[in-house]
Amino acid sequence: MSKQALIVSGGWDGHQPKEVADIFADVLRQEGFEAEIAYTLDAFLDEERLMKLDLIVPVWTMGEISNEQLQPVLKAVESGVGMAGCHGGMCDSFRNSVEWQFLTGSQWVAHPFNDGVEYEVRMTRSSSSPLIEGIPDFTVKSEQYYLHVDPVVDVLATTTFRISEGPHSANGEIVMPVVYTKRWGAGKVFYNSLGHQANIFDIPEAKELMRRGMLWAAK
Q1: What is the pLDDT of residues 125-144, one digit of tens each?
Q2: DSSP secondary structure string, 98-151?
Q3: CA 159 to CA 179: how far, in whole Å?
Q4: Are residues 117 and 143 in contact, defined by beta-carbon separation less than 8 angstroms?
Q5: What is the pTM of this model?
Q6: Nearest 5°: phi and psi at 129?
């Protein structure tokens, strides 16, 4: 029987949620998943159905989630359903929901220079995780996400915020997670802060990180 994935796509159009969801669905289908794309948060209401999934992929930025929509997701992941996502589609989904942020492991708070920043994504060489094995460091030109991060996460890739204009620079250079994993009960959670727009996944390393992360998270 094929593994089952639910991708929930919507929110702010600037992050191209439909295009990103289509990329993720294609990756999962190539790996033998049945991947459904839903365009409403009401897809989260059916707790019994969520419990039968292998993977939930949120692609939803700057929205509002009701408690009735949120609780089935929390319970499903705790039971062992995986969660994987990227950029604001997972960690700037619902700014008013601290429970969502607790689940996902971080919350976006700034991208000091907006879009078009050239920066390096560096694999954590001290990590033996197969999620980054053989993936070289690479450079992107995109938003560089400044996150408030759960201290329990296992950081797999980082970027450095250099000293520059802005009050954050009073703290010196800042090493920030880009890719990490965490646990939520029996569930596995994967996050990649890349993904401002769909074309970031034209970079082979960025797409491969998402492929591995989604497969790892799926129960």
Answers
A1: 888 999 999 999 999 999 99
A2: HHHHHHHSEEEEE-TT-S-EEEEEEE-TT---TTTTTPPPEEEEE---EEEE-T
A3: 10
A4: yes
A5: 0.97
A6: -65, 130
